[in-house]
Design brief:
The chain is mainly α and 261 residues long. It has 15 helices and no strands. Helices cover 75% and strands 0% of the residues. 28% of the residues are buried.
Length: 261
Amino acid sequence: GWDKALAMLDCYQKGVGENETIKQVFGVDTESFMAGFMVWAGKQVKAWGMSTHGVEIEDAELRDIFSTDDATRLDQARLDQALIDHPSEPLLLQVVAQRAIQGEDKAQAIASIKAYQQARPVDPWSDRQLARLALDAGDADTAIAALKTLDRIESNTPEYAVELARVYRGRKDYDSALHFAERALLREPYNPIYREKAATIAIQQGDLSRAAFHVESLALLEPDRAIHPKRLAVLYDRLGRDEDAAAARERLKSLELLEND
């Protein structure tokens, strides 16, 4: 559990050695702990559908299928029989899903992807495919669920948060849209495109202070663009920030003079 992980870290922070830490936190010696951990880890790996990952396939038929350059082009009857013989083999279910994606029946493709996802839930490939198909089909609920998973596990990229902001904005759920627009900015704070989208959504949501913050950031990122002080002047007027509005208009005049020169 999470509490045990924190307790171990607390012991390590105090300089307690590994053996004593395990004894204090779990009440067993290191050898007993590792034996129990390996049993638990084995069950987890199996639940994740990863027990055969990186392991040589024993079944000759499956070996032959997966050694094919493009398994999705195999005879359908052969794949059907392989599924009967190995109904829960993740690699086989992924081949079936890939084949279904190439077909015209998008509902079947989604069902096949979900079958693979159930067999190997830790693979983000499923959510990528589900998100793409759902967005193409206009199925916002399925797209949102898949995109949220991808955004959570691939936390270094802003693309999924940006897409979530777009989908929520299309549903007029501006609170959620702004949340994900700003989440994207946590990953790429100097991206003016993301910043402008956040400002626009904040206006639609009715939070002019947050909109002003994002436009102020844009003015710093792109100091030579006259549109930013122009927008700031309007926002400051609406917020009753008269001095800031006057300063924005002065900045706008300066930029317009530069442009005319």
